[in-house]
Amino acid sequence: MQAVSPCMEEQPNEVEKVLELFGGDARKALHAVLSDCHHLHEQLRLTSGAMSVGFTRGWLPKERAPAEA
């Protein structure tokens, strides 16, 4: 079985690439990232309600990930 890399692993220059997409406007970039995050949380909430406990083997998503400094 192959190991799965963590989804939160930062890729080289990831932040710079996002800022470049928004012309260096950090506020627009942050707004887009937060908007995507809210959308994904809503999708996870909806999916969690439709999944059976047997399907996930008892795993349930956490409400929020711990904040990093």
Verbal overview:
This protein is 54% helix and 0% strand. The protein has 69 residues and is mostly helical. It has a domain at 14-50. It starts with 13 loop residues before the first helix and ends in a 13-residue tail after the last helix. The mean pLDDT is 78.
Question: What are its keywords?
Answer:
mainly alpha
What is the strand and helix layout of this fold?
Elements: H1 14-21, H2 26-50, H3 53-56
Q: In one word, what is the shape? A: elongated
- In round numbers, the mean pLDDT is 78
Strand content: under 5%
Strand tally, please?
A: 0
The chain-level structural class is mainly alpha
How many DSSP helices? Answer: 3
Radius of gyration: 16 Å
Between the first and last Cα atoms, what is the distance in angstroms? 34 Å
Q: What share of the residues lie within helices?
A: 40-55%
Main sheet properties: none
Task: Give the helices and strands as they follow along the chain.
Answer: HHH
Q: Which parts are unreliable, with pLDDT below 50 for 5 consecutive residues or more?
A: none
Quick synopsis:
54% of the residues lie in helices and 0% in strands. The chain has 3 helices and no strands.
